[in-house]
Amino acid sequence: MNNPRTVVVVESPAKAKTIKKYLGADYEVFASYGHVRDLVAKEGAVETDRNFSMRYESIERNQRHVDAIAKALRSADQLLLATDPDREGEAIAWHLAELLKERGVIKDKPVRRVVFHEITQRAIQEAVQNPGDISMDLVNAQQARRALDYLVGFNISPLLWKKIRRGLSAGRVQSPALRLIVEREEEIEAFTPREYWTLDATAGKGKAGFAAKLAQFEGDKVEQFSIVTGERAEQVRATIATQASGTLRVAAITRRSRKRNPAPPFITSTLQQEASKRFGFTGQRTMRIAQQLYEGVDIGSGPMGLITYMRTDSTSLAAEAVQEIRELILERFGKPALPASPNVFKTKSKNAQEAHEAVRPSSAALTPDKLKAHLSADQLKLYTLVWNRTLASQMTPAQIDTVAVDLCPSAHPETLLRATGSTVREPGFLALYDNREEGEQDESSLPPLEQDAEVELRELAANQHFTEPPPRYNEASLIKILEEYGIGRPSTYANIITTLQQREYVALDGKRFLPTDVGRVVSRFLTEFFTQYVDYDFTARLEDELDAVSRGEAEWLPVLERFWQPFHELVVQTETSVARKDVTQQLLDEACPECGKPLAIRLGKRGNFIGCTTYPECKYTRDIKPANGEPEPAPELLDRKCPLCEGDLAYKRGRYGRFIGCQNYPTCKHVEPLNKPKDTGVACPECKQGTLMERKSRYGKLFFSCSRYPDCKFAVWDPPLAEPCPKCGHAIMTLKIGKRRGAEKVCPDKTCGHREPAPQDALPAPAA
Fold this sequence. Notes:
Elements: E1 6-10, H1 13-22, E2 27-31, E3 37-39, E4 46-47, E5 53-54, E6 56-58, H2 63-73, E7 78-81, H3 87-103, E8 111-113, H4 121-129, H5 136-163, H6 174-190, E9 195-205, E10 208-217, E11 220-221, H7 230-244, E12 247-260, H8 268-279, H9 283-295, E13 297-298, E14 303-304, H10 319-333, H11 368-371, H12 377-393, E15 398-408, E16 416-426, E17 454-466, H13 475-485, H14 493-502, E18 506-509, E19 512-515, H15 517-529, H16 536-550, H17 556-577, H18 580-584, E20 585-591, E21 598-604, E22 607-612, E23 621-622, E24 636-641, E25 648-654, E26 657-662, E27 671-672, E28 678-683, E29 691-696, E30 702-706, E31 715-716, E32 720-721, E33 733-738, E34 742-746, E35 755-757
Parallel strand pairs: 1-2, 1-7, 7-8
Antiparallel strand pairs: 3-6, 4-5, 9-10, 9-17, 10-11, 10-16, 12-15, 12-17, 13-14, 15-16, 18-19, 20-21, 21-22, 22-23, 24-25, 25-26, 26-27, 28-29, 29-30, 30-31, 32-33, 33-34, 34-35
Helix pairs in contact: 3-5, 5-16, 5-17, 6-15, 8-12, 8-13, 9-12
């Protein structure tokens, strides 16, 4: 057997397998398994007094892969480095080349760089035929980023150990993200609800009923805070009811038409946001699945890359891809769905790499239906999302007709109730993809109405409301705000979030981020003493400078010099002038009841508590109670007793969020997680021995499985009902509540498919 003439190196074995399929016997493809070198893991890896010289060492776990590449190169003619088309990929290629130079195996052999954005036969063969050189601009941008992260970590982390607690660490990009979460929590805590009332009517004509809201009362426009007391609301309601006497007149009908434009194809951040909103995927899970689709999946004829490179901030599409997409739209949806010319989207980021494309299918002809048998459930979800969004981006806008109807008591035209509705006249891209924002809903349609016609006023209610604080960030909204502020780049969003959780600076309450007590203290320390370096604009400007380096518009060493000198001076100053108590204690305007000295909120092993500032002389402590002098709220008790002492169980809040605990603590220390399985009492239809328990998946989604798991693995996603299917006789039905069909009883046997409306008494009780 002849030795291969060319060695090709990629990052992962999955990608290597896919690429090998498209190259002949003269090529041998290896995987580096990610980075092969990194900074030495100790102080002094970046020598600031020697022009920021960086000391690297081989990554031990990948040493054997480098050995295999070196061995193959001894009998090969050339080396092609085909790592990912971004800074990290460029740096991996450069580090590998440097290691191989040290070994002398590429002394007289050409080393070329191969770049492609999709793993298809055409893209791979074209890239191999047109190799280039390693871009030192991209390499230096990555080196600058790595040096900055190292300098921040190795200088601030020891400060955190001395001033707060050992084991803590700080990151250049994670710290502003933590600040965002902490400041949002402080906004929520400082929020004061405002009361307001609305007057909501149900009107009807014949069998058709529709909703209307009070828009004008006795000539005055009704706005959010026009009615702020129950007494006034009832007065207005009674007046309108008397004026109307059960009948309203159509005072005006306003018809308009509006367009809803399709969203651009996915970039990294929007892909993560949509996958989070639609499927509950974390950023890391989304990127892991996208990586699999990009590197290649066996679709029967061998592995093939199904989407383009998933780390991108460009909304561009290749001309040949647009042509294929337009032909498919014309074939599937007809001429009305195809715009006269391709849709072009402006990239939001001024630093977007336009040579990259948006995340799109490598071939639009590979529809989700064709790939269904070859993809896992998660892969199919994400591929379908990408495929739908890409095709929809090249379709016509949706044409939506809206109508607003003003109703008034016949003799009182100065009082108006307004009903609104909308219908989709031309679906356009909505035939494939709905791009509404979270919480946005289409209005319902109204029955046919004519000017001066009378309708029945069936109900008029005064409803109390309170303004709500801004919501905590979830993954989607946090990624969105990070992108808006310019904090991080496409490849870093998922890592930012994961790092904050791993460091226990934030915890998940539901699916939203809640800062821990340690996270608050760290954020307060950095915001107060390193204000400039957690400033959102500073972080964004630094990212812009790194982007300029990657484009060859700036040198990387001056970026490090401008950062290092003032930063180092501030580290030294903070170390000498700031005491630990300045960081971990917040003085209260309250005296210790035992010694009369001031009390403070202090950070302990289990979170914040109130203690005396003279500790250890005075050891007075107590739990933190609500601010503003309010009495502590009554505990939220459960309807069952503690299994250890028969005491009351209640919901409590600890360092990592809510949990269930015994009210007799500390005498009884029984605790339970919130997601402790709850017995539905419905017998398992498979083993007929256990009962179905309500559980939570690792991603927070409810499901119901047999209490005898793992001996019995029966499970359903929807709440089980202890009644047989009237069609096939299956032992149970399930309760499914959907937006379109409402509440239904559904047979869990997919081959049966029986469903019927669920009566009101089958619905679960509303949460307390």
